[in-house]
Amino acid sequence: MELFELKGKVAVVTGGASGIGAATVRLLERCGAKAEVLDMKNGCDVTDEQQVQKAFGRIGAFDILVNSAGRAVRKSAAELSGDEWDQVLDLNLKATFMCSRNALPVMKRRGGGAIVNLASIMGLSGGIYPNASYQASKGGVVNLTRALALEWAADNIRVNAVAPTFVNTDLTVPIFSNPEVLKNVMRHTPLGRLPEPEEIAAAIVYLCSPAARCITGVTLPVDSGYLAR
């Protein structure tokens, strides 16, 4: 068995037009998979279940789903509006559930599959900065991952998550563009370096690969030691 061989596999990556999602698409393709991108930039709003169903119908059979689409509203809880809360939860958590649920019958027909969700260190800790909706959504992703892993194991569908620390993407521009804020992040980074999108993609693709065939229900931190504090 080629542990990291994905030749002949079809992968669907939400939020795959930029950041971690785009890096994941590139690495999946290097490992032999055909990658399909669902993203607002190519006309698919994954918070709309009808659009997801239409996209899945167009793609047909697939073996891998990476739920990478996400957003954040960095405000204190007292300042966060109900609409802003809904926007974050709808994309980060509800869309992850809806895409996974709609992938289930497709993967069952294929005899199994792999789903990898994008969680965050903020789903496993209280974080550094006020970000209540993001932290709640990613905590939900962590436990949704466990729940689906148990429910779908009998169908040979593995469900895991990756929990990155701060990564330099469009989502974190306010952090990486502010030297004082970034300095504070680095104080919570024991390795003294932050991962690039490609390093998060490597963890995602590992969990999609035959090398992880006995791994399900886990959330794998790629956090430069943040959670070890």
Give a description of the structure.
The protein has 7 helices and 6 strands, in the order βαβαβαβαβαααβ. It has helices at 19-30, 49-59, 82-109, 132-152, 173-176, 179-187, 197-208, and strands at residues 10-14, 34-38, 64-67, 113-118, 157-164, 219-222. Strands 2-1-3-4-5-6 form a 6-stranded parallel β-sheet, with helices on both faces. β3 (64-67), α3 and β4 form a beta-alpha-beta unit. α2 packs parallel to α3 (82-109). The radius of gyration is 17 Å and the shape is globular.
Low-confidence segments: none
Structural class: alpha/beta
Order of the strands making up the biggest sheet: 2-1-3-4-5-6
Overall helicity: 40-55%
Task: Count the DSSP helices.
Answer: 7
Mean pLDDT: 97
Largest sheet: 6 strands, parallel
Whole-Å distance between the termini? 37 Å
How much β-strand is present in the residues? Answer: 5-15%
Order of helices and strands: EHEHEHEHEHHHE
**Overall morphology:** globular
Whole-number radius of gyration? 17 Å
DSSP strand count: 6
Features:
229 residues; single chain; alpha/beta; globular
